[in-house]
Design a protein that fits this description.
The structure holds 2 protein chains of 2 kinds. Chain A contains no helices and 12 strands. Chain A is mostly beta strands. Chain A is globular. By secondary structure, chain B is mainly β. The chains are: A mainly beta, B mainly beta. At the A-B interface, strand 6, strand 10 and strand 11 of A face strand 4, strand 5 and strand 9 of B.
Chain lengths: 114, 114
């Protein structure tokens, strides 16, 4: 079964600084998809960024980028120029191309400090 | 666009009562999920469905039942509610094909069992 591990339960960063959240996963599949979701205090789950395993280029979305290391099964999220609104829980998630469900890590609580 | 609609948003149940959490999506997604999120924790998969008429257990299915008679609806039934089922419940859906793998979430149902 696929598993997703987020080893940092909590992190903090100063406003305007850069922070990196870690995620590792375990799978025997070759074709899969990885996601980072943000959950602010409102509880709404918001997709931050997505990476297809067959793409070598790391995904970027404005201030958010990933470092996808397929051989190491690592998928870290970098947030540049951190803003107070980035304060949230961040979940790493995995799904493969078969009939398997979306699997989440336990989350990292990020606090951006003014 | 309605997306994923969950009802109710809040509910208080007494021990032993039953209820159904409703979930509907209007995106013609084949995959639907139910997760629970305990305070400060990640998302645990309760049940999922890969299409109408097909359901499968997730990580924590005990005490719950689901059905998927249509593509749009995926209700979650709690029989004999217990305090351990106090949680926030999220329904999600995805197309999960090679181009559209993003999962869309409802706004959650906060359930308290007393």
């Amino acid at each position: 079964a696929q598993t997703v591990t987020q080893s940092q339960p909590e992190m903090s960063v100063q406003e305007a600084e850069t922070v990196t959240l870690s995620c590792t996963y375990d799978t025997s599949e070759n074709n899969y998809y990885l996601f980072w979701y943000k959950q602010p205090p409102s509880r709404q789950m918001i997709l931050v960024i997505r990476q297809e395993a067959y793409k070598q280029q790391n995904a970027t979305e404005n201030r958010f980028s990933v470092n996808f290391q397929k051989a190491a099964k690592s998928f870290s999220l970098k947030i540049s120029d951190s803003q107070l609104g980035d304060t949230a829980m961040y979940f790493c998630a995995f799904v493969d191309s078969g009939n398997t469900p979306l699997v989440f890590g336990k989350g990292t609580r990020l606090s951006v400090i003014a | 666009n309605a997306g994923v609609t969950q009802t109710p948003k809040f509910r208080i149940l007494k021990i032993g009562q039953s209820m159904t959490l409703q979930c509907a999506q209007d995106m013609n997604h084949n995959y639907m999920y139910w997760y629970r999120q305990d305070p400060g924790m990640g998302l645990k998969l309760i049940y999922y469905s890969v299409g109408a008429g097909i359901t499968d257990k997730g990580e924590v299915p005990n005490g719950y039942n689901v059905s998927r008679s249509t593509t749009e609806d995926f209700p979650l039934r709690l029989e004999l509610a217990a305090p351990s089922q106090t949680s926030v419940y999220f329904c999600a859906s995805s197309a999960q094909d090679s181009l559209n793998t993003e999962a869309f979430f409802g706004q959650g149902t906060r359930l308290t069992v007393v």
